[in-house]
Structures are given as C-alpha cells and as structure tokens.
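TASK: fixed-backbone design
INPUT:
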C-alpha cells in the first residue's frame, strides 16, 4: 500500500473579534493535512497552533514534512500505533502538527472501514454531552448582545471569558440577557488565588456551573488554594497540557480539560481521558478556534466526556469544511452517516 500526503495553510476569518485575557484574535491560522490511499480515498486533519504553547502556523509547516514522511514510510493508515510512536520519535513537542496528522490518519482508517470514528472505538453516540458556546471579552453591552444572540440561536450553554476589572458587570449582563442559560466561566489564568476564591462566591450566586483556569498554570499551589476554598468546581486547562499533568492536577481541580492541539493526537487524548477518570476527575474536551477538520475529530470523543467546549468552528465567519452537526449545542453523532471523523469539504 502507498499513501500520498499534502498540506496547506489557511487563514480563516472570525465572525467577530475574539478576546480573552491574553489578547484578541480576528482570524485563525490553521494548517490542513490530507492523506490519500491508492484508491483515492482521503483522510483530512487540521492543526490550530497556539503561540501560548510555542506553536505557530509556520512551525507546523516546518515539521509536517518529517511527520508525513513517517506516514508515507509506514504506508498503512491502519498501523496507527506504529505511526503515532514513530511521529513522536521523529518530532518532539509540536502537538498541533502531530494532532493534524493523527486526525487525518484516523479519518482515513475509519473511512476505509466505512464507519464513523466513534463506532470504530465502540462508543455510545447517545452519550455525547452538549457543547458550550463561548462569548469572548468585549464591551459590556456587546457581551450582553452576544449572549442573547447565542441563546436565540439555540445554544443553551454559554462559556463566558473573564479576567477584567468588569467581571461582575459582565456576568450580570449575561445573566440579564440569558436568565435560563447554563453558564461556565474561563479566566484564562488572569486571577490571583485569593481573587479567584472571592469571585467564586458571587459567581455561585449567579448559578455558574464551574470556573476554568482561574490562576496561572505556573502557580500550581495557587490552583490548589483555589480548589480547596472555591464555592464552585474548578477546571484545569492551561495546567493540563500532557498526560503527565493529569496526576499533578488531581488534587488541584475537579475537571481536566484536554484539547487535541495540546495532546498531539487522538490516542493520547484517549489516554488522558482514562488517566483523568482513574484519578477521580471529570473530563472536558475543549478546542482552539479551529476548522471542522479537527473539531469533527474531537466531537468523536464526546461520548467519553462530561463536558464539551467544541465551538471552535462555530466562531468562524466561514469554514471550508463541514463537520458534525451541533445545532442547539447538541453534538449529533447519532445517525452520523459519514465514515471517518465526519469532516468534508464544502
């Protein structure tokens, strides 16, 4: 068997500027990978690199030739374990680049077998939780408008970005605009430990479900301080990057948040989920701002999750790829007719 590989860099404009405590984004640089077998069947995957984790579209493009050379030398998309281990040996770090190749290999392998990826793994499609829809930082009135529009569009779970001196004002505006919505908040490391504990009190009064990454990942004892005193459950994102981080956060949070762009591939994501469960943690899968070439793959993991935050493609002005249906926030794996991850070019 022989495999042909290719990749291209794409710039995807956002529907609205997206701001978190670290900065603002108006477009997403993704790199799309394609792996094609002798019969012309193609698997696709996407990288959505984050400079916060040391990757850019340029670094992804720089290492992809070596990663794809591994795929071509193995020559069999079903030899997933061999491909994954040889990629890790060939290129250290660079998880978004490795994730794109991992996704494309899995997509092609499942397509060749004629089944959706979650069925290949034996997962129960009906167990997928609904995804949240993220509202980024903005002027208070604009945040209120975005929250109201998201609820009107059918998304019952909102994740609100915080990390400003207007946090209470922002949450009150969202609550007024969406009184029935389930709310989660994400500070993206912006608070001090004592600030996080204090804010958890009034966030709990506004029926917020949990707080994501309240303090810097560089302050693990600060995270423990918050976890032990918070009025709300705590999710770890920036503190939970690799498999080795799972035992380290087990006594510092309630929820482990993994992302394919952090794990470097689907097998590692599944290992992190299993490790989190073994340590008594709940599990969420999040995303960067991504094309469906990677969001559709993350959606295949949904039956293994307690929470999903897979709205990356929903924040784009347009996506060259269609994916898994997420109307009303539901991750609609049941009845998925497309084999593979479900990503297809428009």
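OUTPUT:
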């Amino acid at each position: 068997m022989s495999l042909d590989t290719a990749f291209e860099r794409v710039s995807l404009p956002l529907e609205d500027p997206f701001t978190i405590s670290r900065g603002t984004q108006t477009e997403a640089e993704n790199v799309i990978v394609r792996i094609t077998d002798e019969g012309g069947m193609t698997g696709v995957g996407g990288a959505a690199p984050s400079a916060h984790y040391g990757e850019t579209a340029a670094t992804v493009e720089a290492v992809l030739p070596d990663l794809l050379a591994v795929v071509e030398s193995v020559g069999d998309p079903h030899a997933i374990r061999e491909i994954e281990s040889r990629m890790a040996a060939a290129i250290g770090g660079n998880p978004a680049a490795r994730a794109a190749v991992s996704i494309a290999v899995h997509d092609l392998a499942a397509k060749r077998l004629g089944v959706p990826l979650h069925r290949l793994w034996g997962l129960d499609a009906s167990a997928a939780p609904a995804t949240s829809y993220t509202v980024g930082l903005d002027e208070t009135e604009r945040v209120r408008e975005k929250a109201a529009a998201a609820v009107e569009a059918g998304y019952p779970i909102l994740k609100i970005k915080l990390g400003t001196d207007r946090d209470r004002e922002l949450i009150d505006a969202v609550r007024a605009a969406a009184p029935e919505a389930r709310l989660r908040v994400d500070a993206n490391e912006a608070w001090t430990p004592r600030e996080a504990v204090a804010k958890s009190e009034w966030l709990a009064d506004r029926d917020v479900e949990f707080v994501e990454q309240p303090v810097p990942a560089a302050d693990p004892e600060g995270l423990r301080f918050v976890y032990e005193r918070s009025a709300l459950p705590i999710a770890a994102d920036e503190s939970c990057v690799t498999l080795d981080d799972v035992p380290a956060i087990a006594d510092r949070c309630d929820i482990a948040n993994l992302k394919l762009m952090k794990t470097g591939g689907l097998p590692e994501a599944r290992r992190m989920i299993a490790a989190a469960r073994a340590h008594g943690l709940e599990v969420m899968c999040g995303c960067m701002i991504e094309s469906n070439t990677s969001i559709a793959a993350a959606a295949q993991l949904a039956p293994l999750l307690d929470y999903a935050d897979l709205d990356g493609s929903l924040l784009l002005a347009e996506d060259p790829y269609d994916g898994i249906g997420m109307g009303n926030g539901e991750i609609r794996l049941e009845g998925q007719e497309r084999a593979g991850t479900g990503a297809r070019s428009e």
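COMMENT: The chain has a mean pLDDT of 97.
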